[in-house]
Amino acid sequence: MGYIPEHMLENLKNYKYRGADKSLVSRFVLNPFWNWLVTLWPLSVAPNTITLTGLSIVFFNFATLLYYDPLYLVEREGYSDPPRWVYFSWGVGLFVYQSLDAIDGKQARRTGMAGPLGEMFDHGCDALNTTLECILASRALGLGRSWWAVASQIATLANFYLTTWEEYHTGILYLGYFSGPVEGILMIVAIYFITGAYGPQVWDNRIWTTLHLENVPYISRLPNLPLNEAFMVFGAVGLGFNIITSYINVLRATRQSHAKGGNNNLTARHDSNYPPLLLLLPFVVSTAIQVAWLSHPEFNHSWILHSASFVPFMCAWGLQFAHQVGRMILAHVTGTGFPVWDWVWVWSLLGAVDANLPSLLGRAPVFQTSTRNTAIFVWVTLAISLLTYARFVTLVINDITNYLGIACFTVRKKDERGVWRRVGEEKVL
């Protein structure tokens, strides 16, 4: 019942991480800092421990939102504005997360623990962080429970999916001159700090008015959007640019593999029954399911979008996405086929169909007959999504550690007699 076919376990030993980071900020500013930061960690600390520490900080930030803004989780309109220091803590926490996420690979090379497990663990934590930061950033921007927050979730997850899709087909994790893990995170950190200094209402100011450009020819003809909506438009432009660059990289890799020939994993992927572009559809389908559920026609507004069900809905969506991209990364490190379908979507599909029965069949929903029943359905979906992802993580970690003879959170390997030894000792496999 594991996720890795037994005949594909051998590919784990052949996996090697390949990355390309073109970011000038990363190269000239952050990387020297990261090189110093990793030296503060003892060699006895496992890379995955560093990764999990960073994610724990994000969980703490998310907990402060729910504690200081309880209206986010109750059936009432409006919000409680958290203390200003909370926003600063989100900014510091996200920067620390970025730093720890950047040095876990460096620690892996220092300790000789680099491999597919670290790749899986790192991407899994990044996938979880993506949704949590969408919720936090939407709150900091004053977007709250709105379609703008949903658009933020879609754009952010799409960027993550694109990067994973690109890595699967090229074998390389590309980070461009402007990437989410570097510049994108720094922008969110800046948003948290600005909100901490001036409050969420600062994002209601109009962009051209704030920049004193509202009377400049040509610019004055453009919509004078609020700052938070302008930021969303900027994100949409960035997403479009990433789609183009990712497609170019995949197209180039496909042509090169066909020109060289051979029987390597990348060639097999490019010769599969599914053209690379077609493998973007799983994300489109899964997103369409969530949007259809949110936009059901009952009353004038969605019960989920403007209720306490919004946060658990977003979290369930994020867990399902983490399961989806986790299987994509697993397919990458094991050389297996691309996961086109994910059964974890079924529960959300059921919720979307049930909520839209009035427009589909002209009858009332079967399960979501009231706000309370809808909330129960959403929370059950969250529980199922959480258990599914927890099962995935547990089984994959067990498969990889048992086959490679390594530990997840300690710098140890098994020798030929099955005895655990620290990395670097003699007779270590």
What does this structure look like?
The chain is built from 15 helices and four strands. It is mainly α and 429 residues long. It has one domain. 38% of the residues are buried. It is globular. One of its GO terms (molecular function) is diacylglycerol cholinephosphotransferase activity. Its EC number is 2.7.8.2. It is a multi-pass membrane protein.
Key features of this structure:
single chain; 429 residues; mainly alpha; two-stranded parallel ribbon; two-stranded antiparallel ribbon; 15 helices; 4 strands; 63% helix; disordered C terminus; membrane; transmembrane; CDP-OH_P_trans; transferase
Brief summary:
The protein is 63% helix and 3% strand.
The number of domains is 1
Overall structural class, as computed from helix and strand content, comes to: mainly alpha
> What number is the mean pLDDT?
85
Largest sheet: 2 strands, parallel
What is the terminal separation in angstroms? 27 Å
| Proportion of residues in β-strands | under 5%
Pfam family, one: CDP-OH_P_transf
Protein name: diacylglycerol cholinephosphotransferase
Main location: membrane
Pathway: Phospholipid metabolism; phosphatidylcholine biosynthesis; phosphatidylcholine from phosphocholine: step 2/2
Strand and helix map with partners:
Blueprint: H1 11-14, E1 19-21, H2 24-38, H3 47-68, H4 84-111, H5 116-140, H6 147-170, E2 173-175, H7 180-198, H8 207-210, H9 227-260, H10 265-270, H11 281-294, H12 310-334, H13 345-355, H14 357-360, H15 371-404, E3 412-414, E4 420-422
Parallel strand pairs: 1-2
Antiparallel strand pairs: 3-4
Helix pairs in contact: 2-4, 3-4, 3-5, 4-5, 4-7, 5-6, 5-12, 5-15, 6-9, 6-12, 11-13, 12-15
